[in-house]
Design a protein that fits this description.
It is a single chain. By secondary structure, the protein is mainly β. The protein folds into 4 domains: 1-19 and 43-165, YVTN repeat-like/Quinoprotein amine dehydrogenase (Methylamine Dehydrogenase, Chain H); 209-343, Methylamine Dehydrogenase, Chain H, CATH 2.130.10.10; 349-629, YVTN repeat-like/Quinoprotein amine dehydrogenase (Methylamine Dehydrogenase, Chain H, 7 Propeller); 639-720, Sandwich (Immunoglobulin-like). 2% of the residues lie in helices and 56% in strands. The strands form 16 sheets. Strands 1-54-53-52-51 form a 5-stranded antiparallel beta sheet. The chain has a 4-stranded antiparallel beta sheet with strand order 2-57-56-55, with no helix packed on it. The chain starts with a helix and ends with a strand. The relative contact order is 0.08.
């Protein structure tokens, strides 16, 4: 099945030409917010004004605010399920993306990029360049096409040059197109008549398959070659181009600024660096200096006095993670790193508690996200010790983390989250290789990679004590404590139920086998819901824990990875199929109410009210499922409404609206800031509430009603008139 999924992941997925936000297929579910964008790669970068656009493979187009280059920040993204961006060009509020086909995306609002159209390609699009009202599209094996984008919603191919294979880059100068092929061929196309383009000159500059990038300046072409370095080609006579200079190196990209070429060099034989090459005399390129960079470089773009460089950073596990660095090049001889951006790790698990989401992001660590405003969720805390976090569980003011250090080497960590902005490591220890965690009362249960699970007494989280180990078959994929039992889903597709009457000596009381690979479990009442891999959702009656019985299945499109149940609905994160909302009011007859084909891979899901939180690998996304779940829509912001009547004589009614559950305080103050009375204080679910104020002992005058919720304050004036 894994092979089938891999094959499926590279098959072209055709999208509607006028899809909405992030261009995903959906029904009764809306994408409303995201945070913590992850990059799978960093192929190319281009800058325009205060924005940088980065092609990041399967994580799509990432749009960065670089108005403050010391703190570049991702503010928007465009990604399509299982389609990667390999190259891009940006012009006039439009981004042109090589994503298998050519995607034309409106980025005039960089926070909400929107697909305008797709130009289908029978072959894979490898590179794009834009000039005037035309896009020049290089196809891997089909050739070069010219596309009229005067009407971006209805692009039209108006010219085509066949016979060009393995196109890696294209540049435009005047009425000439310069096409670079991977095998080292430079082809010059004249297109004064777009419908009849003609190749008028060519030259073989190398005998390898490593030519990567081309820039043409003042009748000189500069070509970055990964094996042979920088080639300088005189193209003044376009019918007879000739090599006039060369500098040895291993270059993947090149940018020209004034009298210098800035070339990205990445090779195992040399330090990863940016080479500064003096090209005052193009026939004699001279190495003038270099800057070492953090990992293998991939792309460079220069804007003003700053160079923006993408790179792949090698982690302690040997894995490479992409990033971006900003260099001040006002004086290249004394270059200075002024800013950098390192994306979070792969977002693969999420839990929700009141107004906070807890994201477990592999090598990116653990982070806390405030979603009191779901359209603009904000990361408020990060905990990252450089370990690979496999799993986590929350309980009160503590988070328990399963950390992977290496084969058969891991640890259990306890983090105090009382103050999200200042996360405290309380406990770190316990050997083995923890995989899944469940927490209940004063006990923590940690599954081991090989078999069984360990029980710990966590009554003192700073000094947890090991109690015992219970041996099972395969390692647990997920664990959940509910109603005095621990439910364990393992990698062999088994559901095991253990009685926790004596937590120090759990007893296996029942089990059943599911047809797939049980990935995740949730239990509501007397029913267990299992994300059963390629078999979809498996629903099991656990009213008799000794004899669990399968009730039904619901086959999801791909591989069910995570499950979260709220009321009459089970939400499934389905790897290739995105977020699925299943009605389970009758557990024996589940049926689908809505879905969202998420970008990336839907790996885990959590739910709070009408909002679903999906770890998609590339980020944590928030979806509004109110329509699919039949939940009346309420405001997404807190609101303290006007009192009625106001002014008032004897009493008035104060209304307020809460978009999320949580602690609420409603207080009455006088103009001196002194609290007069408490109208309400406690925990409330999301909804609209009223409080009646009786002016029994109050004197006439001005008063203030203050609502405090989610760390915010809202105030209204009221006037008492006797």
């Amino acid at each position: 099945m894994r092979f089938a999924i891999l094959v499926f992941s590279v098959i072209c997925f055709v999208l509607p030409a006028n899809s909405g936000f992030f261009a995903q297929d959906h029904l009764n579910v809306e994408h409303i917010g995201w945070v913590n964008s992850y990059w799978s790669r960093a192929y190319d970068v281009t800058t325009q004004g205060d924005l940088a656009f980065v092609a990041t493979g399967s994580s799509g187009l990432q749009i960065m605010d670089i108005s403050n280059p010391t703190h570049p920040e991702v503010i928007g993204y465009y990604a399509v399920s299982r389609k990667g961006v390999r190259d891009l060009a940006v012009s006039g509020g439009l981004a042109f993306l090589a994503m298998g086909d050519l995607h034309i995306v409106d980025v005039s609002n960089p926070k909400r990029p929107e697909l305008m159209s797709i130009v289908d390609s029978p072959d894979r699009v490898s590179c794009v360049s834009v000039s005037g009202g035309y896009v020049y599209v290089g196809h891997r094996n089909r050739g070069l096409s010219m596309v009229d984008i005067s009407t971006p919603e209805k692009p039209k191919e108006v010219g085509f040059v066949a016979g060009l294979e393995d196109i890696t880059d294209v540049d435009i100068s005047g009425n000439l197109i310069f096409v670079l092929t991977e095998s080292g061929g430079l082809h010059i196309i004249e297109y004064s008549e777009l419908d009849t383009p003609e190749e008028i000159g060519s030259i073989q500059i190398a005998d390898n398959r490593d030519s990567r990038a081309i820039v043409v300046e003042d009748n000189v072409a500069f070509i970055a070659d990964y094996s042979r370095g920088l080639y300088v080609v005189n193209v003044e006579d376009s019918s007879n181009p000739n090599i006039v200079g060369q500098l040895a190196g291993h270059f993947s990209d090149v940018e020209i600024e004034g009298d210098y070429a800035y070339a990205v060099e990445s090779h195992w034989l040399t330090p990863d660096a940016i080479r500064i090459i003096r090209i005052t005399d193009p026939a004699r390129p001279v190495l003038a200096g270099f800057w070492e960079i953090e990992g293998p470089g991939s792309g460079i773009s220069i804007s003003g006095k700053n160079a923006f460089v993408t790179f792949e950073n090698r982690s302690y596990t040997g894995k490479t993670t992409p990033g971006l660095k900003v260099y001040n090049i006002a004086d290249w001889s004394e270059y200075e790193v002024i800013g950098s951006y390192h994306p979070m790790g792969w977002a693969d698990q999420v839990e929700v508690d009141n107004e906070f989401a807890y994201l477990f992001a592999g090598e990116g660590g653990f982070s806390i996200v405030d979603f009191s405003s779901p359209e603009t969720p904000e990361q408020v805390g990060v905990f990252n010790k450089g370990w690979l976090i496999r799993n986590g569980a929350t309980s009160g003011q503590h988070v328990y983390l399963a950390n992977y250090h290496g084969m058969d080497d891991g640890s259990l960590s306890v983090v105090d989250v009382s103050y999200p902005g200042n996360l405290t490591d309380m406990f770190g220890g316990v050997g083995g290789e923890p995989v899944a965690i469940a927490v209940s009362d004063h006990y923590t249960y940690v599954s081991n990679h090989h078999n069984g699970f360990d029980t710990f007494d966590n009554s003192d989280p700073e000094n947890m004590t090991w109690l015992n180990r219970h041996y099972l078959g395969e390692r647990a994929s997920d664990m959940l404590v509910s109603g005095g039992y621990i439910y364990i889903a393992d990698a062999e597709g088994n559901l095991s139920i253990l009685d926790l009457s004596n937590p120090e000596d759990a007893i296996l009381v029942g089990s059943c086998e599911t047809p797939g690979f049980a990935r995740s479990i949730d239990v509501q009442g007397q029913v267990a819901y299992i994300a059963d891999g390629e078999e979809g959702l498996c629903i099991v009656d656990v009213s008799n824990p000794n004899l669990p019985e399968t009730l039904s299945f619901f086959d999801t499109p791909g591989e069910a990875m995570g499950v979260a149940v709220s009321g009459e609905h089970a939400l499934i994160s389905d790897n290739l199929g995105g977020l699925r909302v299943i009605n389970v009011s009758d557990p024996e007859v589940p049926y689908e109410m809505g879905y969202y084909n998420t970008p990336g891979y839907a790996l885990d899901v959590a739910v709070s009210g009408r909002f679903a939180f999906v770890a998609t690998g590339i980020n944590l996304s928030i979806y509004d499922c109110s329509e699919a779940m039949g939940i009346p829509v309420i405001a997404t912001t807190y609101d303290l409404m006007s009192a009625y009547p106001n002014p008032f004589n004897s009493s008035t009614t104060i209304s307020y609206e809460l978009p999320f559950p949580g602690n609420v305080s409603l207080q009455l103050y006088n103009p001196l800031g002194q609290r007069i009375s408490t109208l309400f204080e406690g925990n409330r679910q999301a909804g609209v509430y009223t409080s009646n104020l009786v002016a029994k002992n109050l004197v006439s005058g001005l008063y203030f009603v203050r609502l405090e919720a989610a760390g915010q304050e809202y105030t209204r004036k009221i006037i008492l008139v006797r």
